[in-house]
Amino acid sequence: MPAVALLILGSVARAQEPSPLERVAERYARAETYCETGKWGMRTRPQEGFQETAFKGCAHHDGRMKFAEHTDRDRQVYTWADAGRFYRYSEYGDFYKAYSDRDFPTHWGYRRERVPSLTSRIFAWDREHLDGRDPLRGLAMYKPKAALSTPERTAFERFQDPHERRAERLFLSNRDQTLVRYEQLTDGVVLRYVEVAPQLDRALPAAELAHQAPWSTRFSLSNNQPVFLGGLFALTTLLSGGVWAWLFARASDPQSVLHGRRKLWRFQRWALGGSVILLALLAVGTLVTPGRGHPPAIIAVFVLAFWCALGFGLLACFTLASYPVQWFFRARQAR
To answer: May I ask the CATH architecture of the domain 19-214?
Structure first.
C-alpha cells in the first residue's frame, strides 16, 4: 500500500507540474525587453514556393518598439512606436506616416502589447492573438509532438478544428527554452511559418527602439502636404520678393514694371479661364464616354486640376509679392 500511495502522489505531482510551454509563458510574461531576428514565409497553395521576408526588431516594456523588414535587401521598411504614436517608413517608395494607436493599420502585424514578448512574429498569426486573447495563456493548449522533436528542439502542436485539418505548431529550443519557430498547417502542409532567434531581457540602447526618416521624406508632398505646401509658398514669396526688388531697382521708370505686372495678371485670368473650361470638358468626357480601367479616368482630371491650382497659386503668389516691394521703393523715394 505505501508503494501504491507513493505512485499516486508522484502522478498527482507530475500532473500539477507546469508544462514546458507554460514555464516559457511565465518567463515571456516577466521579460522587460524582447528582441528577435529571423524570417517569415507564406504561400496560398502547397505547390507554390514561400514568399519570405527577413526581419529584426526589439520591444521595451515602456511601449517603445522598432522592427525592420527586408533586412536582407538594400532597402528596408521600418515600423516603430514611442509612448504615444506609431510610425511607418518605407525606403522603397519614400513612404512615411505617423499614426495614433487607434488608427495604426493592424494588417502589418504590429500593435501595442502589454508585454514586450507579444510583439514577436511568433504570435502574429496565432489564433489567440488574432482573436484578442492572451496568446501566452493559449500555449497550454499545445501538446508535445514527439515525432517532430529533436535533441535541439521540442515540437508542440494544437488543432484549430475538430476534424484536425488545420493545425499550429511551435518549436521550443531545448538549449535556452525560447520559442524559435511557428508553423500554420492545412491538411498537414505548412502554409505559413516564422523562424526567429529571440533574446529576452537584453539591455537596449535608444537607437534600437527608434528610427528617423529623412527630412526630405517626412516633409514631402506625398507624406506631409500642409508643411510641404506651406514651405513651397513661403520660399516662392521670398524668391519672388528678390526678383521684384531687382526689377524695381534696375528700372529707370517704375511704371514699366507696373505695366508688366498688369500684363501678368491679365495672362493669369485668361489662362485660368481656359484651364477651367478644358478641365470641365475633360470631366464631362470621362463621365459621358463609357470606359473601363482602374483608377477611373475622372481621377486623372482631379490630378490635373490639383496641379493647375498649384501652378496658378504659385504664379499669383509671385505676382502678389510685388506689392510690398513696390511700397518699399515708393517709401524710399519719398524720403
So the answer is: Clam (2.50)
- To the nearest 10°, the Cα dihedral for 24, 114, 109, 141? 40
Average pLDDT, the chain: 87
Residues 232-279: pLDDT tens digits?
999 999 999 999 999 988 888 888 999 999 999 999 999 999 999 999
Can you spell out the DSSP letters for 34-57? Answer: EEEEEEEEE-SSTTSPPEEEEEEE
Find out whether 296 and 283 touch, Cβ atoms under 8 Å: no
**Segments making up each domain of the chain, as ranges:** 19-214, 224-334
The set of cell numbers assigned to 259 is: 505695366
The beta strands (E) that lie in the chain are given as: 33-42, 51-60, 65-69, 77-81, 85-90, 95-100, 143-144, 153-159, 166-173, 179-186, 189-200
Q: Is the dihedral of CA 99, 103, 106, 107 positive or negative?
A: negative
Q: Scan for cell 500555449, then name that residue.
A: 139
What are residue 155's phi and psi, to 5 degrees?
A: -95, 145
